[in-house]
Amino acid sequence: MLINVSTLLQEPVGHARRYTADHELVAVPELRFAQEITGSIRLIRSERGVLVTADLDLSPVDLQCGRCLEMFETPVSIEFDEEFVLDHDPITGRRVEVDVDEFRIDQQRHLDLSEAVRQYEESALPLQPLCRPDCLGLCPKCGHNLNTGPCGCAAAASDDRWSALARLQERLGTEDGDGAPEA
Ligand SMILES: [Zn+2]
Predict the structure, then answer these.
(1) Are residue 145 and residue 118 in the same domain, yes or no?
(2) 68, 69, 140, 147 — which has fewest CB within 10 A?
(3) Ligand 1 centroid to 94 CA: how many Å?
């Protein structure tokens, strides 16, 4: 999504525009990033360019659950305030110092939100994605997804517990016998 800000750049600092994005496409092809944005975008003419205040819903992102390894979709919303700067003064044409990591307005006076959306999406996504807060994960023995129900290992473990109890009962039974140690 490119926003033409040439008119806004002719206006005094503080002048504003409001845009509504409705499933607009943003993309950073070299990083294989593509998203759809919906929400409000406010542009304010600043000293060095345009201050963007965005409040956006993105299309759901596919993530892999860190516990059960299943893929799931998660909704993503982002909010940001970022200044997009010009590398030259729009009136005098004089070059202006711009840091490499600053967002820029291009020569055609277009403002492209794609890279900002990519960066904010990245930081909005969880580092340890979970398909649901109480995801049961995988059985450490057989790798069965425990969200779909217990696996054979659980039954075997409880069998183990029962047989251990039975053995204990047996032992107590024998010790109960005559109580006296064998001579
Ligand atoms: Zn999961």
Answers:
(1) no
(2) 140
(3) 55
